[in-house]
Amino acid sequence: xxxxxxPGAPPDGLxxxxxxxxxxxxxxxxxxxxxxxxxxxxxxxTVLLAEGHLLIEDxxxxxxxxxxxxxxxxxxxxxxxxxxxxxxxxxxxxxxSVYNQESREFEFKPGAIFANVVLGDEINRASPKxxxxxxxxxxxxxxxxxxxxxxxxxxxMVVATQNPVEMEGxxxxxxxxxxxxxxxxxxxxxDPEAELAMLDSQSSGTPLQDMQPxxxxxxIAGLIDVVKRIHVAESVRRYAIALVTATRISPDLRLxxxxxxxxxLLRAAKAAAALxxxxxxxxxxxxxxxxAVLAHRLLLTAEAQIARRSAAQxxxxxxxxxxxxxxx
Length: 328
Hints:
- It is a single chain.
- It is globular, with a radius of gyration of 21 Å.
- The protein is built from 15 helices and 13 strands.
- The chain is an alpha/beta fold.
- A hairpin with a 4-residue loop joins strand 4 (95-100) and strand 5 (105-110).
- It has one domain (16-321): Rossmann fold.
């Protein structure tokens, strides 16, 4: 099969130069707070431009919440934080209708989900019932309360942090909840030089206090529109489908990736291509994002768990076994 991933002339109005300048500005702002994690910052920016939601998972103290807060502060738009606790109610997230005695009517009081960027801190400390309050918000960008539907403002992004399930006092995220996160990233421990720089920069305060917004909601909406028009050749689309299909038949998995995962993988690949100043997606873009986009959606078989295999290892094996499209 011979295919060409390049669409030729860029689509009308596709301003990749402006996107590159804006993205570099946001990335630089976030990296003043997050030391030594350029790949993690890039993935967070990729998810933002792809209209996705980001799940940050790692042990306590490695900067999960700091990454979420710094990304939100870099944007001059509405930001709400939800601290997930066992006693948090769904109405605390979505909002509630309150009876007004003067007008003798029920008035809707919006919950914390009504913002451009929502920070969900330690999301897996809330009960599955409360976690499920996010399902409609994250997928359909709307909230339904007492039979009335309320649209959420665009752009809309949920950045959630969670500790590993083995940690005390946590609940595993429902499969439907995990599937709505475009990507999962682990912060990891910083290298010694980055940790030393962190000690110097935070000895008398935190860089987050001095951080100023470098982009507004309208600008982000424009960048998202640019990403939407990035070209994806049929061969690349078929390659993404082949990767996802391979997870569904893998003997190591009892639950493979969903069609939503395929859509998220291609959206993220388009954002990655735009960040690389390309108006078309390469198979390499799909490969680089496969683990981050697919692994958190998968359920291992008991045999794979006993063999101490991880979902990330299974995805990496799938990528290595799946033939690349012939691109010329």
